[in-house]
Amino acid sequence: MRNYSTVKHHSTCLSRHLKILKDAGLIRCRKDGTKRMYSLVDPRIQNAIEALTPELVNVLQREVMEQMSCGSKTQG
Predict the structure, then answer these.
(1) Residues 6+ positions from 41 with CB-CB distance below 8 Å
(2) Which of 13, 40, 63, 69 lies deepest, with the highest CB count within 10 Å?
């Protein structure tokens, strides 16, 4: 079970990020009762995300592995 303050913090961060994306014109929002439904304005945004994601994952994995190897050298 999550702590309420943790959940509230995450929803606050999410709301802030959604506002930034909306203000930048990347997403749109429509209300559905008490819910808000977000979608990308242009399908090319999804294509760009999908194209960048594998390379971004590779870069981040390399950086993490380098940091882990440096950390183990200083400890051992």
Answers:
(1) 25, 26, 27, 28
(2) 40
At 17-49, the pLDDT tens digits run 999 999 999 999 999 999 999 999 999 988 888
Could you report the per-residue pLDDT of 47-59, keeping only the tens digit for each? 888 888 888 888 8
Q: Please report, for the chain, the start and end positions of each structural domain, with discontinuous segments joined by +.
A: 1-41, 42-76
Rounded Cα distance, 22 and 41, in Å: 9
pTM above 0.70, yes or no: no
| The two three-digit tokens of residue 10, written as one number | 């995450």
Written as one letter, the residue type at 19 is K
